[in-house]
Write a structure and sequence with these properties.
eight-stranded mixed beta sheet, 26% strand, alpha+beta, globular
Length: 406
């Protein structure tokens, strides 16, 4: 048993678990706000940003999709502007490209108009386009109408994470998976790592992403949700000249995923995807990766079954596109008719850490909870990379407030 013992010095003031962009942004924000605060970051992988941060489409989101007043809306709008400045300051590859959201069916037109209104409520400049105007931005894209969002961009989020790590001044330990946690509210937190180290801290910050709910329970806090992992599969476009920038479908508001979209990245390549299918492991980047204990944990959570019943039709379509390249190509051709099946080259997949409540509700906003001497980031999927700087400041504020009271 790992124990916090009276009279033994703390190894750090704040211990951050998770070396993705949110954890590293938190460490950076703490040392910026309170110089001299000792911060240690534990990351189980051999380097930073190996999971959600390094396996997304690299888009700096504008914030147009998110409910006005929500953390996602506020932090995405604020974070997008800050991310561009951060990348410019440190010479990290980025570009503000703008994007199109395209309606291809009449039923989508009211949802497109609602997005215009939402964008304006969130303070985002939006231009409405008729069918003929779409070609001004994307000659190969077809649709009934579209909106152009000028503040969307792309960047190298892995590069951002590495810069945050370097600039934070934190003690960052890679290859250090958390094995046990002993929290004593009157004393602090002690963590045993897979390397055999014991790290003692006054406050713990949980930015463990795909394992954040498990770490919360290991700490002794019931998070009230479970992470249900969804794999997003991507293709690369063999003819990148077909797409100039970023092209998105009109999202279905009943589901938290944006649908298959086209993204010209900072390297000039065009990624197509992702879909969203249940993963058979929290780091299940392919159908061949199966972890029975993790599958059993997902199936044991009542919300998983309610979610499946509620969205079986949508989920069936996503599964079909996962196993059939022909079906995936058909979905892409709604936006880009010129694409052929042979134009799609398989690319690396990602896994989204989606929090699901006991009643099957998908948590649709960032979720941060506190326990004795602990701050838990329990839902931070997209647009968390975009919003990572303001998220990090908020988590840092809570951790420092907690630190000041102990």
């Amino acid at each position: 048993m790992v124990q916090v013992r009276a009279g033994i010095a703390y190894d750090c003031d704040v211990l951050v678990v998770g070396g993705g962009i949110v954890g590293l942004s938190t460490a950076y924000a703490i040392t910026r706000a309170a110089p001299g605060t000792r911060v240690t970051v534990l990351e189980k992988e051999a380097g930073a940003a190996r999971h959600q941060t390094g396996r997304n489409s690299g888009v700096i989101h504008s914030g147009i999709y998110y409910r006005p007043g929500s953390l996602k809306a506020r932090y995405a709008v604020e974070g997008a502007a800050e991310m561009v400045k951060f990348c410019a300051e440190y010479g990290i590859a980025h570009a503000v490209t703008g994007k199109l959201i395209v309606a291809t069916e009449r039923a989508e037109l009211p949802r497109l108009h609602a997005l215009v209104q939402r964008g304006r409520e969130n303070g985002i400049p939006v231009r409405e386009l008729g069918a003929a105007q779409i070609g001004e931005y994307e000659p190969e894209v077809r649709g009934l109408a579209a909106i152009h969002v000028g503040t969307t961009g792309v960047c190298d989020f892995v590069g951002v994470a590495r810069q945050l790590a370097a600039a934070s001044g934190a003690d960052i330990r890679y290859g250090a998976r958390v094995v046990r946690v002993d929290r004593r509210p009157e004393r602090g937190v002690a963590v045993l790592t897979s390397r055999g180290d014991v790290v003692r801290a006054r406050v713990l910050v949980n930015c463990a992403g795909l394992y954040c709910d498990e770490l919360a329970r290991l700490t002794g806090d019931e998070p009230g949700m479970r992470i249900v992992p969804f794999r997003g599969e991507y293709y690369e476009l063999a003819r990148p000249e077909l797409v100039r920038g970023l092209v998105y479908p009109v999202p279905d508001p009943a589901f938290p995923f944006l649908g298959v979209h086209l993204t010209r990245g900072i390297d000039g390549g065009v990624h197509i995807g992702p879909n969203a299918v249940p993963a058979l492991a929290r780091e299940g980047y392919g159908w061949g990766v199966v972890r029975p204990r993790e599958v059993a944990g997902t199936l044991a959570w009542p919300g998983s079954w309610t979610l499946a019943r509620r969205h079986w039709r949508y989920g069936g379509g996503e599964l079909r596109r996962s196993v059939s390249k022909k079906a995936f190509t058909k979905a892409v051709r709604r936006l880009l008719p010129a694409v052929a099946q042979d134009d799609l080259v398989p690319a690396a997949a990602g896994v989204r850490a989606q929090a699901v409540l006991r009643d099957g509700t998908l948590v649709d906003d960032f979720l941060i909870k506190e326990g004795p001497r602990a701050v838990h980031v329990l839902n931070a999927p997209s647009p968390a990379a975009t919003a990572s700087l303001p998220i990090g400041r908020e988590v840092a504020r809570r951790a420092l407030e907690m630190l000041g009271s102990v």
